[in-house]
Specification:
Structural class: alpha+beta
Order of helices and strands: EEEEH
Number of strands: 4
Largest sheet: 4 strands, antiparallel
Radius of gyration: 19 Å
Helix content: 10-25%
Distance between the termini: 33 Å
Length: about 80
């Protein structure tokens, strides 16, 4: 996947994602989410990794215990 800064519109950056299938998708994000000095035409890289969710699940369980789960509420 190739990610390019297509254009900058005020405080937003429009990113162009070139997918391996040849499709192109665009998405606008806050310019502040990108490294300082990012310019139009810049090529970006993205790294994703899986992480252990046990800590987040334990925190969620603690929050559920503290929160009223009566009528009109929804499950987190």
């Amino acid at each position: 996947m190739r990610i390019t800064v297509d254009r900058i519109e005020g405080d937003r950056a429009v990113l162009e994602f070139a997918i391996d299938s040849g499709a192109i998708e665009t998405v606008a994000i806050p310019l502040a989410a990108l490294p300082n000095g990012t310019l139009e035409g810049a090529a970006l890289s993205f790294h994703a990794e899986m992480s252990d969710t046990s800590e987040a699940e334990a925190r969620l369980a603690r929050l559920r215990k503290k929160t009223d789960q009566g009528p009109g509420t929804f499950d987190l």
